[in-house]
Design a protein that fits this description.
The protein has 501 residues and is mainly alpha-helical. The chain is built from 29 helices and no strands. The C terminus is likely disordered.
């Protein structure tokens, strides 16, 4: 029977065991310290590994088990060697799977003759095919023929100004060949889209160029540029925040592109949910260079988040006036006035934009919209007629030209512009939705239904009524309506009726 202590509670039966354990630990103190240290290190290592697993994009884990070597080199900051191992592993895996397009596989494998032949064959059929031009630019870049590589990126950017793959490749070329200009503005243009470096080629390129910059002597290292490439790597590794900020702060101390370095600091603080630190960095960026439009723009987004429309407007205005010909800021200031229908303000800003670039399609489109709202439809029509004569700078311009053509009753031009937009960027949803609407109106139901299905699968439709209108095309064509698309919550009865009509 267990003895009773003064409080009337039985003594735990494990107490003798604890006594013996304590005696052992006191007797072998050094062993105890070693074991405790090992336990602590194990726990810390486990915590670090779990944390890193949540920060890393799967692309960094590699396609196969042996890619752990590349990952270790990456973690150690040996980026160039890591890039070579990742390239070998991915090419081996993709070749074995047999699902990768030959042009991409040849480019990744750096099989230059095969890549050139494949790209040139595709350009014979489609002289402006973006993927083929980029492949030839990548081959020229890999071979160190930087002027030739630059010519290919210029061709792509000539028809698609915001193509992030071409922007990133152009920045890489300028980093290797300083005669091509400063790569930082090009990197800023790529990074501001939020879609930069989303593919395997960009990943390998960024790892290699980061390793190249780190191989330079410390006193010659372009720190502001390095911070930007760290920001690109952050797309794959959210644990890059400290490295970006540390490198950017060193660049500021060194006087190396301080406005761009402050911008990098602000972007990271903004992503980390530290708006006050972010705003401080953006203000310092703008103070260092009043033409740093992105600093004003990011500050306006912070003010928008807290509902401060006055400061949101002030910083948007400053961003626009720092770069009045840039479609990015033209569209941003136009969106700000979209709800207020302030036609006078839109006209004023678009006049500034057109003074900076008389051929700006976004500025013309915004001005035409303002005139329509002011019931000046004939003047808007004149603008639309001029818009369709201008040279489009990419899919967005083409879609605005298609809208202008619709107002003019030029369905032929409208369809051609939308199809051209898709040729430049097949992943865009808006052209598919607009084509579906145009083709249904023209009673080309088979084609309309095909465009509708592509757009719907890409999440292009949120309006239930619009979806049901397209679902009626299935019965018109005598085709069964897919339940996933045409049977919506709360609309089962209506959908069944549509399918049975």
């Amino acid at each position: 029977m267990n003895p009773i202590n003064p409080l009337g509670i039985p003594v735990p039966i494990t107490l003798p065991f604890l006594d013996r354990l304590l005696s052992f630990l006191l007797k072998y103190r050094r062993l105890t310290i070693v074991l405790t240290s090992l336990l602590g290190l194990t726990l810390l290592s486990g915590f670090f590994l779990v944390k890193r697993a949540t920060e890393l994009n799967p692309i960094l884990l590699g396609p196969e088990k042996q890619s752990v070597k590349a990952l270790i080199l990456y973690e150690l900051g040996v980026y160039s060697r890591a890039a070579r191992l990742y390239r070998t592993d991915y090419v081996s895996y993709l070749s074995r799977e047999g699902l990768t397009p030959p042009l991409l596989l040849h480019t990744l494998a750096q099989d230059f003759p095969a890549a050139i032949q494949s790209a040139e064959e595709r350009l014979t059929e489609h002289p402006d095919e973006i993927e083929a031009l980029l492949a030839l630019g990548q081959v020229a870049y890999d071979q160190g023929r930087y002027p030739e590589a630059s010519r290919y990126t210029d061709r792509v950017l000539g028809v698609y100004k915001e193509n992030v793959d071409a922007l990133l490749l152009a920045a890489l070329i300028a980093t290797r060949d300083p005669s091509r200009g400063d790569p930082i503005p090009t990197l800023n243009a790529a990074l501001r889209t939020g879609t930069a470096a989303r593919n395997l080629t960009s990943f390998l390129n960024t790892l290699e160029i980061t390793g190249y910059l780190l191989s330079k002597p410390a006193q010659d290292r372009p720190l502001a540029l390095l911070a930007h490439y760290y920001r690109v790597l952050r797309i794959y590794d959210s644990g890059m925040d400290r490295r970006v900020i540390h490198t950017a702060e060193r660049a500021i101390q060194k006087g190396d592109h301080p406005a761009d370095a402050f911008l990098s600091v602000g972007v990271i603080h903004k992503k980390a949910g530290k708006p006050y630190k972010a705003l401080d960095a953006f203000l310092k960026s703008a103070a260092a260079d009043p033409r740093q439009a992105l600093a004003y723009f990011h500050a306006s987004v912070l003010y928008e988040a807290v509902g401060d429309t006055t400061n949101q407007y002030i910083f948007l205005r400053n961003a626009f006036r720092a770069a009045p010909s840039d479609p990015f800021y033209i569209q941003a200031i136009n969106r700000f006035f979209a709800d207020s229908f302030d036609s006078h303000a839109v006209r004023s800003f678009m006049s500034e934009g057109l003074k900076a670039d008389p051929n700006s399609i976004p500025a013309h489109a915004a001005l035409a919209t303002a005139k329509i709202r002011a019931s000046e439809k004939q003047e808007a029509r004149v603008i639309f007629q001029h818009m369709i004569t201008l040279s489009a700078g990419g899919p967005s311009d083409l879609e605005q030209q298609a809208w202008a053509a619709e107002w003019l009753g030029r369905s032929d031009f409208q369809e051609a512009a939308l199809r051209r937009s898709l040729a430049l960027d097949p992943k865009r949803v808006t052209p598919h939705m607009e084509l579906a609407r145009l083709l249904r109106k023209a009673q080309r139901f088979d084609e309309a239904l095909n465009e509708f299905e592509i757009a719907e699968q890409a999440g292009g439709y949120q309006n239930t009524q619009t979806i049901q209108e397209y679902c009626q095309l299935y019965s018109t064509l005598g085709k069964p309506a897919p339940a996933r698309v045409c049977t919506l919550p709360g609309r089962e009865h209506d959908s069944n009726q549509v399918a049975q009509q």
